[in-house]
Amino acid sequence: MSTTLAQILDGKQLSAQVRAQIGEQIQAGMGAGKARPGLATVLVGDDPASHIYVRNKRRACDETGMQNFHIELAEDVGQAALLQQIVELNLNPEVHGILVQLPLPKGFDYDENQVLATIDPAKDADGFHPANQGALMQGTPAPIPCTPKGVMQLLAESGMELKGKRAVVVGRSNIVGKPVALLLLEQHCTVTICHSRTTDLAAEVANADVVVAAVGVAELVKGAWIKPGAVVLDVGINRNADGKLVGDVEFGPAAARAGWITPVPGGVGPMTIAMLLQNTLEAAWRD
Ligand code: NAD
Question: How far from the centroid of its chain's Cα atoms is residue 230's Cα?
Answer without folding.
Answer: 21
